Amino acid sequence: VQLQASGGGLVQAGGSLRLSCAASGRIHSINAMGWYRQAPGKQRELVAVITGGGSTNYADSVKGRFTISRDNAKNTVYLLMNSLKPEDTAVYSCNVADGETDYWGKGTQVTVSS
């Protein structure tokens, strides 16, 4: 399974970005799909996750600002990020659980200027 992430970039504080991550290859049964981020000098942290049934969970720091969604027909997960803050600057990576195997996509840089 390969994951292709896109949508990162440079945005001013208060702006918005939408990340996408499409899974392809020998996909069996995708369950949870999620986004993680890692800022310089910090550990990777969970941003948001969505289960196969559509249940979602968010980091407290992004609740009310970020929305995770998925298109099962396209094996794609999205992250809509609104009201971005400089502290959201990080490399964002997608994660997909296919059966009992986790797959990671290459990260995409999100930079929020003040």
Written account of the structure:
By secondary structure, this protein is an all-beta fold. 0% of the residues lie in helices and 58% in strands. It contains no helices and eleven strands. It has strands at 2-6, 9-12, 17-24, 30-38, 45-50, 56-58, 66-71, 76-81, 90-98, 101-104, 108-113. The strands form two sheets. Strands 2, 4, 5, 6, 9, 10 and 11 form a seven-stranded mixed beta sheet that branches. A four-stranded antiparallel beta sheet has the order 1-3-8-7, with no helix packed on it.
Put the structure in a nutshell.
By secondary structure, this protein is mostly beta strands. It contains no helices and eleven strands. The strands form two sheets. Strands 2, 4, 5, 6, 9, 10 and 11 form a seven-stranded mixed sheet that branches.
Question: What is the N-to-C succession of helices and strands?
Answer: EEEEEEEEEEE
- How would you classify the helix and strand content by structural class? mainly beta
Low-confidence segments: none
Number of strands: 11
Mean pLDDT: 96
Quaternary structure classification: single chain
How would you characterize the largest beta sheet?
7 strands, mixed
Morphology call:
globular
Number of helices: 0
Termini, distance in Å? 37 Å
Strand content: over 45%
Helix content: under 10%
